[in-house]
Amino acid sequence: MKRVLSVIALALLSFGFAQSEIEANVINFYPDVKKSAKLSQSGYQLLVTNINRILLESSQGATDRKHFVLYGIPNIFEEHIIPTVPPIHKVLLEVQLVVGDVSEKRTYGSYTYTHLVGVNRNKDRAILQALRSLKTNTEVQKFLRDSKKKIFDYYKNNCNVLITRASVLAELGKYMEAIEKLDAVPNVSEDCFYMAQSKITEIAKIQNQNTRAKDRQRPNEDTKSGDSKEDKYSWIESEK
């Protein structure tokens, strides 16, 4: 009996590891940062670099595919000038990290670094100093793992709904939007993934058959929205 229980426990443990490995391999994040008037270009680039480093150090992996984003939102909420000669700038800021699904416009979790302090005679350098204190820790690693698990569960449990939505978009002539939604489906379930890929092929054929109609750019045809990055991610902050 003990041997049977040991075998069952080992099987469950192996399944858990296998599922975690699948999540890690098929769901990767694109690092990005909200532009801020108070954040210099150097600060923006440093924050993107730090987020990318956090992903790598957490064994989560970064990607250029912009389906799942790890979005950094910096907030400089305290600024002091210490009246020395020359004056010294002290800044206190926080950075919120949000895991978002660009295709579905959903968020799966957030984590906030608080009390990041920078002190320098130059304000921008003080901000850079504060941003350099952004380090990987066990809490942010857990946040990333939990967010991936939520993504995994969402796509596994809503496969038919997602494919139906894409089909409706295709019927409205919004072929590219439909294809982009289907292409965002991660391989968390072979059945769902192959259904999505098959639907992409089907929609692409329909799109090719309607090339002349598309060229006439009817009102219900697929067009580029031209949204800026901030518009693209506005739904993230609306869910905060």
UniProtKB/TrEMBL annotation:
Q: Does the keyword Amino-acid biosynthesis apply?
A: no
Q: Which UniProt keywords apply?
A: Signal
Residue spans with biased composition (Basic and acidic residues)? Answer: 212-240
Q: Report if keyword Metal-binding is assigned.
A: no
InterPro entries reported for this sequence: TPR-like_helical_dom_sf
**Residues making up the signal peptide according to the UniProt record:** 1-20
- Region Disordered, annotated ranges: 207-240
In Swiss-Prot or TrEMBL terms, this protein is called Tetratricopeptide repeat protein
**Organism of derivation:** Elysia marginata
Upper classification of the organism: Eukaryota, Metazoa, Spiralia, Lophotrochozoa, Mollusca
